[in-house]
Amino acid sequence: MYRRDLPVLALIALFVVGYWAFVPPVEPRPTLRPLPTEHWLDDGAEQRNKKARKEWFAERHKAV
Question: DSSP secondary structure string, 19-60?
Answer without folding.
Answer: HHHHSPPPPPPPPP-PPPPP----TTHHHHHHHHHHHHHHHH
